[in-house]
Design goal:
Blueprint: E1 2-11, E2 14-24, E3 29-33, H1 40-47, E4 55-60, E5 75-78, H2 90-99, H3 106-114, H4 130-142, E6 148-152, H5 160-175, E7 179-183, H6 187-193, E8 196-201, E9 204-210, H7 211-217, E10 222-226, H8 230-239, E11 244-246, E12 252-255, H9 259-268, E13 275-279, H10 283-291, H11 302-308
Parallel strand pairs: 3-7, 3-8, 5-6, 6-7
Antiparallel strand pairs: 1-2, 1-4, 8-9, 10-12, 10-13, 11-12
Helix pairs in contact: 2-3, 3-4, 7-10
The structure holds adenosine-5'-triphosphate.
Length: 354
């Protein structure tokens, strides 16, 4: 269990993490979402004791990270793609990590096998693809067989087989009773991997709820209807006080009614239906709806600019907040944090024979 209490991190004028209070429970995969610059990586670094909070607290099984007697038994993490010692093979890279943390050598071969890198164990990671580098980072996170795992964008650079493998690995680790906290921008993947969601925007907590509730609460559900008599059906629904909105493709969108009721009304009025399908929003739609106001960096097309004028999207926050890059430019890379990008330094507490 990871518990955050009023966690806050300021870099000068910038509040990267703003009074975050939530818990990450064992036994389920918890997804961590937020637009670019929302503060996800900063939060993860604070959780791992790689950066210190301005105020507030993070506890891991009730203790601060630096109070953990055997941190390797508690937390393994994959943060941003790490630079690996160029001269060492993948095996030796993990062996160094293992030996400096009291982990038995045999564990290196085990984790290389788990992540599918055994065949390239004697190769140098500098020639690895992005996906292979991710697998090596995941191997390092698993090395200490920790109870808590934290992954920042673990599927970055992985091919479909790799993405599928990461999904199964996360779910298996959670099913073993571990705490699994994972960030990703791939919404479709997150929607089938995580059971619980924590969403932040501009450093603030926006949602801490189950995946199902998040989608239900932040999206519109409706029934799509196709009929050769759309006008007559609209009128028939209207007499029942039901709104049906026509769409450009000729279908009707009926709000607030179960599909069964819409079908029964069509039958009652002897109206032929060619389609009757309940529409549920995706995680991506729900996420965009919730976070629209907190997106810091908006790209926008020339057509949008011309249509909307210099004010940008109606109802949207200013496109270029103070100190931000110009619209459409990628966010600037933040300066490296204290010890940022380095794996957590595990103690020498490996228990033989676990
Ligand atoms: N060391 C730092 N010094 C100054 N500002 C920083 C530092 N680290 C992060 N920030 C700023 O804090 C904010 C949150 O950054 P963070 O990297 O945590 O966001 P994120 O949600 O992980 O973003 P992304 O999804 O783009 O990776 C950003 O505005 C970032 O520029």
């Amino acid at each position: 269990m990871i518990e955050l209490e009023g966690l806050t991190k300021r870099y000068g004028e910038k509040t990267a993490v703003d009074h975050l209070t939530f818990s990450v429970r064992p036994g389920v995969v918890t997804g961590f979402l937020g637009p670019n610059g929302a503060g996800k990586s900063t939060t993860m670094r604070l959780m791992l004791g790689l950066d210190s909070p301005t105020s507030g607290d993070v506890r891991i099984d009730g203790k601060h990270y630096d109070q953990l007697q055997e941190p390797l038994n508690y937390i393994g993490a994959l943060l941003e793609a790490k630079s690996v010692h160029g001269g060492r093979t993948a095996y030796n890279h993990l062996l160094c990590l293992a030996q400096s943390n009291g982990i038995p050598d045999r564990r290196v071969s085990e984790v290389l096998d788990m992540v599918g890198l055994s065949a390239v164990a004697k190769k140098r990671p500098k020639g690895f693809s992005l996906g292979m580098g991710q697998r090596l980072g995941i191997a390092a996170a698993l090395l200490g067989d920790p109870k808590i795992l934290m992954f920042d964008e673990p599927v970055n650079g992985l091919d479909p087989e790799g993405i599928h493998w990461v999904r199964n690995l996360m779910q298996q680790l959670a099913a073993e009773g571990r705490t699994v906290f994972v960030s990703s921008h791939l919404m479709s993947e997150m929607s089938v991997t995580a059971e619980h969601l924590v969403v932040i925007g501009q450093g603030k907590l926006m949602a801490d709820t189950s995946m199902a509730d998040f989608i239900a609460e932040n999206s519109r559900t409706y029934v799509r209807v196709r009929t050769p008599e759309p006008e007559r059906f609209r009128d028939a629904l209207g007499t029942e006080g039901i709104n049906a909105a026509p769409t450009s493709d000729g279908s009707l969108e009926v709000d607030g009614q179960p599909a069964a009721r819409v079908g029964e009304l069509a039958a009652h009025h002897r109206i032929v239906l060619h389609e009757l399908s309940p529409q549920k929003a995706s995680l991506e739609e729900a996420f965009m709806r919730l976070t629209a106001e907190s997106v810091e960096y908006h790209a926008h097309t020339q057509a949008q600019t011309q249509a909307q004028g210099p004010g940008g999207m109606p109802g949207a926050p200013p496109i270029a907040p103070q100190g931000a890059p110009p619209p459409g430019a990628p966010p600037q890379a933040p300066p490296p944090p204290d010890g940022g990008g380095q794996p957590p330094q595990w103690g020498a507490g490996w228990k033989e024979g676990r």
